[in-house]
Amino acid sequence: MFNLLNKHITNIRALQTFQVMRYAVLFVTGMLFAQAGLSTELIGLYEKLLFFASVLSFFWVSGFIQALLASHGKIEEGQRSKKLFSVFIVVMLCSVLSFFLFRVAAGSFIESDDKTVSTLVNLFSFYLLLANPAFLVEYIYLLLNKPKSIIAYGVVSFSVQLGLVVGPVFFADDTYSQSDVLYLSICGVVASAGFRFVWLIVLLFRNAELKINTEHINSLLAIGLPLIVSSVLSGSIEYINGFIVQHFFDDATFAIFRNGAKELPLAMLLANSFSNAMLPKFSDAQQLNQSLAELKQSALQLMHFLFPVTIILMLMSKTLYPVLFNASFAASAGIFNIYLLLVISRMVFPQTILIGLKKTNAVMFISLAEALTNVICSIALIQFAGVEGVAWGVFIAFTLEKILLIFYLKFKLNISIQHYTSVGWLLIYSATTIAAYILASGVI
Predict the structure, then answer these.
(1) What are the structural domain ranges in the chain?
(2) What would the pLDDT profile of 160-169 be if each residue is shown by its tens digit?
(3) Which residues share a beta bridge with 81?
(4) Which of 85, 86, 137, 427 is paired with 28 by a 20 to 30 Å CA distance?
(5) What is the mean pLDDT of the chain?
(6) From CA 402, how far away is CA 399, in angstroms rounded?
(7) DSSP state at residue 347
(8) Per-residue pLDDT tens for 180-224?
(9) What's the Rg (C-alpha) of the chain?
(10) Packing angle, helices 214-248 and 360-385, rounded to 10
(11) Share in percent of the chain as helix, strand, coil (round to 5)
(12) What CA–CA distance (Å, rounded) separates 343 from 157?
């Protein structure tokens, strides 16, 4: 039984499991904070610190990790990579810059004169310094073709994180104020990041050639910078839409939109981790046809799981939203259902091929077209569909992005969508999902 289980632990499934564990720990942490009686204000402060740290780092972390995976095939057993240390140096420099930016700007973002907040900001900045380089660990294991190590690392590191962060909330005695408890929890956040950073250093000593190679750094920057710009453009859509809704509607409508504008987290996590896990396979152009076939087969397995989950949620959303929130948020279900339609474009992976083939400039310019389309369509559709028009703008922009990527592959590289997507299944699932949306919306 154990051997059978081992055979099914692939790099793709291991990375997907790891990302689900990461999301689950963040969700459980917030839930346990609330159950332990930590005040809403302090939980909000913790979430703001996490949010601002993410704003300062998500784009370059994503860009450089994808650049590493696209430029680096499998690390053969016993060999020491010549590129890993160069990647570490670049990521470490970006982390140092983020560390100082966070210390300078986070106080203004949180808007508080409380000296306690200033202390927490300075402490939390060390999380940025240590945690961002540590994101390399799971991808080094990916390149080493060690899926079981990815899962083991996830179980150990996230258990340590959960214990160190949540422990003070439950075990601190009455002599500690709630601010003191949050301080200890943030110490736990930093300590868990330090634990992962030490793990990274050990991995580098074992598997990397510890020399700085300017050629490798220049190559990494050439591939990674367009991906960083693309991440900024794609990541900014959520914030731009918030400003659009805030400008055209009142606070109540803004709250309804924010509670509905949530793409299915499982779809996003599994699709993104699947895409990243496939990138090293496309770094070898000689294996292109084999990699395309593997992408097609694995993407189909993902469709078989995510489309049914999406359809069930779509049909249940109008019942669930008033229960999970209250009757005032019933309108959020309509927005949520539009966001669920994004699963259709999520299940097509032309960007994986382009990034793997190092055509990152194309990805960047198409991301710019996506961002512009989102703004134009969102504002235009508000006139016809109200606040749901903003959600439709997102759907149109995401769909256009995938269409442009598909066309680029077809007409520039002669790679047809049939080579990497089970088109028949995609059409069947897409039609069923759209039918579920129409049924859930009460149009028929």
Answers:
(1) 2-212, 228-441
(2) 999 999 888 8
(3) 208
(4) 137
(5) 86
(6) 5
(7) T
(8) 788 888 999 999 999 999 999 999 999 988 888 888 889 889 999
(9) 22
(10) 0
(11) 85, 0, 15
(12) 30
